[in-house]
UniProtKB/TrEMBL annotation:
Residues 22-193 form the PARP catalytic domain. It comes from Thelephora terrestris. PANTHER family: C2H2-LIKE ZINC FINGER PROTEIN, OS04G0690100 PROTEIN. This is PARP catalytic domain-containing protein. GO terms for molecular function: NAD+ poly-ADP-ribosyltransferase activity.
Length: 233
């Protein structure tokens, strides 16, 4: 059966069963990545696998192969990292909510539909600690800081994307450098490490091919913190 024939219009999600090894692995990443002491670990409600065609993953796989060839086998060059963004619909709030919306304010559906676009970097937040890049983190509670619920209806959950990220050889930085861009300097990404300006790590890539969303995690709500995000995240 062809890929397109098994999906409803705009459906790009497949709910995973709790006994599925993929579900258990992603849930473990989420739970272990929840590190903020002032935010209790929420309950995972659902984990969805994002349905992708080979052509949608082709450039990402080619990029990963080129990085492995450059860096060498046996060196970690990729991983799964979280990203929080705006959701303006009920996608993933219940298992039946598996169709993408067409709301221009819904970054979540836009990313799932077309992946990340470096050209849009900085459109949501004025402050970019390590320059114009695509920001992710292994710390799920940090990514949660960037989730925003813009839906007009009351939802039962929050949502984070889990992304396949090719970071290659990362440049480790602990101090803010808004001009950072490792392209051409022997590095492929920036890894923001703790001990300087960051309390929790983050990984930044500077090319669209380095990242693809692969899972969506929805989890229990908690009280939104009042006020704007502090720059020290």
């Amino acid at each position: 059966m062809r890929f397109g024939s098994i999906l409803k219009k705009n459906q790009r999600l497949k709910a995973l069963n709790e006994d599925d090894p993929e579900y258990q692995y992603v849930k473990k990443l989420f739970d272990e990545g929840w590190k903020h002491p002032n935010k209790s670990t929420p309950t995972v409600r659902s984990i969805f696998k994002l349905l992708k065609t080979p052509s949608e993953m082709g450039e990402h796989h080619s990029y990963r192969s080129s990085i492995v060839a450059e860096v060498g086998d046996g060196v970690d060059t990729s991983g799964l990292f979280f990203h929080g963004t705006n959701r303006a619909c009920a996608l993933g709030d219940r298992k039946i909510n598996d169709e993408l919306c067409n709301n221009n304010k819904c970054n979540l559906c836009g990313i799932i539909r077309s992946s990340y676009d470096l050209a849009k970097s900085g459109s949501k937040h004025k402050f970019s600690r390590f320059g114009r890049g695509i920001y992710t983190s292994a710390c799920s509670s940090k990514a949660d800081d960037y989730f925003r619920d813009l839906a007009t209806c009351k939802l039962q959950s929050r949502a984070l994307l889990v992304n396949a990220v090719v970071y290659g050889k990362p440049q480790e930085l602990s101090k803010t450098d808004t001009s950072a861009n490792p392209c051409g300097s022997g590095y492929h990404s920036v890894m923001g490490v703790t001990g300087g300006d960051l309390n929790y790590e983050e990984t930044v890539v500077y090319t669209n091919e380095a990242i693809r969303p692969v899972y969506l995690v929805t989890y229990g709500t908690h009280s939104e913190r009042v006020g704007k995000l502090r720059k020290r995240a």
